[in-house]
Design brief:
Helix content is about 20%, strand content about 30%. It has nine helices and 14 strands.
Length: about 325
C-alpha cells in the first residue's frame, strides 16, 4: 500500500526574459516555476526550478545526471502566489523604466508525494495539455513523470546549490541530524521559503510507480487569475509565447525579475552591495568582465545585475572593492 505524504494540484509557469518580444527556446526564458497547492490547505508553494528545466528522464530509468535543484521562492495563500505572477512596470537605476511581463501558464495537473523503495517521490500527471507539445518539451515537462525528491540540510553547504537557507523551526531541523539530504516524511519541510530540494528523474510512466493520480485542477480559479486576460497558447497548444498583458505601474517590493513582493533574500537579488557580492560569489580575482558575467550567470543572478555587469568597462578587476566602485559609476 502506497504511503502518501501529500496530494494536490500542480501548475507550471515560465517567465520570459525582460523585454523579450518573442520566445523561441529556453534561451528566451528567465524563470521556470512549479507551484504546488496541497489538497485541503489554503496555501500554495511556488518553487523556482534550477536551469529553467525539469530533470530529464531517460528510458524510464533514473540516471546520475538527470537531477536538478528547486528552491521555495514563496509560500502563501493561493491568490497571493497568483499575484506574484502578474506583470509589473518598474524603475531601474541603469535603464530607467522597464517592464517585467507576466509568467506564462504552461501546464497544470495533479501531483502526489509518497514513499517508495526507501526514498520519497514526487509524481504528477498533466490534465492540460493532455499531450505535451513544444513548450512543454522545451521545459522538460512530460505528460506524467516521477522523481526521487529530497530536502537539503540547511546547516551543511552543498557545492552548486544556492546559499539561501530556510528558517526551519527546531523540530524540523532536528530531522536532518548530520545528513546532507533527507526524504520528505513531513510536508512542512516544503513550506518554508528558501527550502531547497533535489530532484532526480525516475519514471515517465506512473504505472512503474504503481500509482494512479486522479482529479482535475482549475489553475485560474485556484490562483485567482482572470482567464480572459492571461495568455493560454502555451497551456492549450504548447506554443511558446512572450508576455502580452499590460503591466501595473508600481514599484515591486522585491526582485522585479521574480515579478512580485519578496522578503528574505530580496536584497541579495538586486544591484545593492549585498546583491553584487552574492551574484559574484566564487569568482577568481583578478578577472575580466567576461569572467564576472560567467560567474553571475552561474550563481543565477537577477536580470538587473546582469544588465549592470554588461555596462561595466572591459578591463581587469583586481578586488571586490574595485568591482563595487565600477558598479557605482554605472548604476
Amino acid at each position: 500500500m502506497t504511503d502518501f505524504v501529500e496530494k494536490g494540484d500542480i501548475f507550471f509557469f515560465y517567465r520570459p526574459k525582460v523585454d523579450a518580444k518573442k520566445v523561441k527556446n529556453l534561451d528566451d526564458v528567465q524563470r521556470l516555476y512549479m507551484i504546488l497547492v496541497p489538497d485541503d490547505a489554503d496555501m500554495a508553494r511556488m518553487f523556482l526550478v534550477g536551469k529553467k528545466r525539469m530533470p530529464a528522464i531517460v528510458e524510464g530509468e533514473q540516471t546520475s545526471t538527470a537531477r536538478e535543484w528547486m528552491i521555495n521562492d514563496l509560500t502563501g495563500k493561493p491568490k497571493t502566489v497568483g499575484e506574484a505572477l502578474v506583470p509589473l512596470e518598474y524603475e531601474t537605476k541603469t535603464r530607467g523604466e522597464r517592464e517585467q511581463g507576466e509568467a506564462i501558464p504552461v501546464a497544470e495537473g495533479r501531483y502526489a508525494i509518497f514513499e517508495r523503495d526507501y526514498s520519497s517521490r514526487l509524481a504528477y500527471r498533466l490534465t492540460s495539455p493532455e499531450k505535451p507539445h513544444r513548450a512543454q518539451s522545451e521545459l522538460g515537462i512530460m505528460a506524467e513523470a516521477s522523481y526521487v525528491i529530497s530536502v537539503r540540510n540547511p546547516a551543511i553547504d552543498v557545492p552548486g546549490f544556492p546559499d539561501a537557507k530556510p528558517d526551519y523551526p527546531q523540530y524540523l531541523q532536528e530531522k536532518f541530524t548530520e545528513k546532507r539530504w533527507i526524504d520528505i516524511d513531513d510536508s512542512r519541510l516544503l513550506d518554508h521559503e528558501n527550502a531547497q530540494l533535489l530532484l532526480i528523474g525516475a519514471h515517465d510512466d506512473l504505472s512503474d510507480e504503481g500509482i494512479s493520480i486522479t482529479g482535475k485542477p482549475d489553475l485560474f480559479k485556484t490562483l485567482g487569475l482572470n482567464k480572459q486576460e492571461w495568455p493560454t497558447d502555451a497551456l492549450k497548444a504548447g506554443k511558446l509565447v512572450a508576455s502580452q498583458m499590460q503591466p501595473e505601474s508600481r514599484e515591486p517590493e522585491g526582485d522585479p525579475s521574480k515579478g512580485g513582493a519578496r522578503g528574505g533574500q530580496a536584497a541579495r537579488q538586486t544591484d545593492s552591495a549585498a546583491g553584487i557580492a552574492e551574484a559574484l560569489k566564487g569568482v577568481d580575482l583578478p578577472c575580466r568582465k567576461a569572467d564576472l558575467l560567467k560567474q553571475a550567470k552561474a550563481n543565477h543572478a537577477s536580470e538587473e545585475i546582469i544588465e549592470v555587469i554588461n555596462e561595466l568597462p572591459s578591463r581587469q578587476y583586481k578586488t571586490m572593492t574595485d568591482i563595487q566602485k565600477a558598479f557605482g559609476k554605472v548604476r
